[in-house]
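Is this the right way to post structure tokens for a design question? Let me know if I should format differently. Anyway, here goes:
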């Protein structure tokens, strides 16, 4: 064997679940993979359990790891976000040489990625922050990958990432998203959309369960049917699986035994924080993040359950709502709310891209999110088509196809929001998405009044619909208007 063939094309640092699965994915695709983990036991476990799946070069020190990589060296870091990632980046940078590429495949905050890229570039190395979606299963069998960083590193990295990414219609679910933090930003918003997507499914479940009185198995069947239509997606598919699961010990549907407090690791929250800074309303994602927070407020909830006045509540029967019609209405409300959440997510990506000069192409995202990632859905093909037809769309909702969909969804959506309110079931994303939609299409918004109030108490001035310029009314004087 030549010296060259003893070297690895790619290295993985951090061999917990995601890192090991990614390393195995590379090896199964025929690449030689260098391995390093702070504690060697994880490296050893991987070799013992999966060493036969391909060519691995395990290393006990970061120096040996770096020495085992072909140039330009390419190392993917899969360790905890934050301080651990910084520590590993520094160790790698110390051992690497000019032109080598450090890839952070974790869920880093994009502003950290921007900072790291700058620091690493000053040392003559390339830094690529890459969002990787798909969970454990995706890492092993084909994730959706969103790499940022310098365009020139994509040349050395692209084919490797393409070989392990998910594939849809012959297209790999990976592409260079844009410079520095673009990849992690887009991955962050992807996760935010995922929060909203999961929440709208949750709201549909809530209504069918506690509004229509269906049992989990019946609802699982409904979701299976929905998965054959416009809502065909990974999340709808796994929802049916979760709802079908029966606890072996008690014979009770598992869903009824799971504590109803949702966890979160932070990417949804980041998405909302970034949106606030960019001034982009991502109400669907925001409500989804808050819904998880509320679910976790155990003490407040325990104090409130059965203890707050509900007002007079109705039921589907009392309202004369036929179950079959209601189920279809709920499907449509879910679809419409999901559409709003995606439209808002794409708005945030555009705003982030404009702010940072990333030049992110929304068509790329609709393409690479079709497979591998958690929000993979048939629906993304439609988003791709929408941006193909008009890359400058003011909002996805105005795409002719989605507009025609909305025309057939809107009446159901309104009915569901009304009925849910009458039966007292929470639907934060369904309801706020409808308000967002009505706000967008409203001829006049109460913002005029807010401007009046602001001018009254703070002389903040207002614009007029009939004249150019800024105006102020002398509220505490004779109430004449002056132009300022
Ligand atoms: P996952 O979510 O996939 O389980 P994680 O919790 O994000 O993984 O990251 C865990 C990985 O980060 C482990 O490989 C861990 O190394 P150890 O096995 O030695 O604990 C690695 N890690 C955490 N902190 C680290 C640090 N300061 N330096 C190097 N690696 C670190």
């Amino acid at each position: 064997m030549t010296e060259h063939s003893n070297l690895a094309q790619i290295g993985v640092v951090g061999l917990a679940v995601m890192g090991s699965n990614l390393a195995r994915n590379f090896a199964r695709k025929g690449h030689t993979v260098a391995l390093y983990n702070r504690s060697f036991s994880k490296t050893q476990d991987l070799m013992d359990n999966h060493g036969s799946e391909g060519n691995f070069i395990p290393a006990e020190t970061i120096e040996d790891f770096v020495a085992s990589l072909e140039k330009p060296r390419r190392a993917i870091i899969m360790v905890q976000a934050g301080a651990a990632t910084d520590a590993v980046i520094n160790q790698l940078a110390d051992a690497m040489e000019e032109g080598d590429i450090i890839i952070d495949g974790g869920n880093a905050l994009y502003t950290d990625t921007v900072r790291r890229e700058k620091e690493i570039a000053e040392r003559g190395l390339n830094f690529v922050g890459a969002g990787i979606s798909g969970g454990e299963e995706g890492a092993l069998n084909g994730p959706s990958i969103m790499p940022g960083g310098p365009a020139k590193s994509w040349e050395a990295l692209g084919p490797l990432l393409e070989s392990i990414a998910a594939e849809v219609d012959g297209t790999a679910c990976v592409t260079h998203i844009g410079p520095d933090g673009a990849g992690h930003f887009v991955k962050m918003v992807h996760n935010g959309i995922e929060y909203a997507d999961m929440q709208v499914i949750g709201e549909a479940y809530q209504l069918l369960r506690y509004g229509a009185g269906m049992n989990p198995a019946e609802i699982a069947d409904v979701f299976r049917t929905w998965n054959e239509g416009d809502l065909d997606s990974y999340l709808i598919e796994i929802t049916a699986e979760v709802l079908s699961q029966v606890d072996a010990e008690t014979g009770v549907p598992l869903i009824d035994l799971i504590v109803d407090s949702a966890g979160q690791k932070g990417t949804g929250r980041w998405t909302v924080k970034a949106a606030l800074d960019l001034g982009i309303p991502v109400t669907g994602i925001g409500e989804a993040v808050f819904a998880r927070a509320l679910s976790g407020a155990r003490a407040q909830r325990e104090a409130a359950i059965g203890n707050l006045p509900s007002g007079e509540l109705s039921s589907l029967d009392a309202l004369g709502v036929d179950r079959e019609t209601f189920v279809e209405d709920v499907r449509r409300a879910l679809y419409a709310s999901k559409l709003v959440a995606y439209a808002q997510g794409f708005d945030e990506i555009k705003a982030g891209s404009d702010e940072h000069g990333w030049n992110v192409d929304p068509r790329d995202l609709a393409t690479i999110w079709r497979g591998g990632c958690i929000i993979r859905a048939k629906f993304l093909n439609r988003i791709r088509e929408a941006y193909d037809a008009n890359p400058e769309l003011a909002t996805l909702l105005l795409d002719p196809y989605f507009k025609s969909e909305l025309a057939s969804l809107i009446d159901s959506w309104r009915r569901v929001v009304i009925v849910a309110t009458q039966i007292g079931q929470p639907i934060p994303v369904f309801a706020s998405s409808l308000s967002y939609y009505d706000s967008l299409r409203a001829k006049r918004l109460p913002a005029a009044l807010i401007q009046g109030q602001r001018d009254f108490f703070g002389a903040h001035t207002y614009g007029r619909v009939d004249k150019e310029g800024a105006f102020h009314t002398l509220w505490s004087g004779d109430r004449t208007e002056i132009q300022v």
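Format looks fine. Someone answered above. Worth noting: The first helix runs from residue 17 to 28. The first strand starts at residue 10 and ends at 13.
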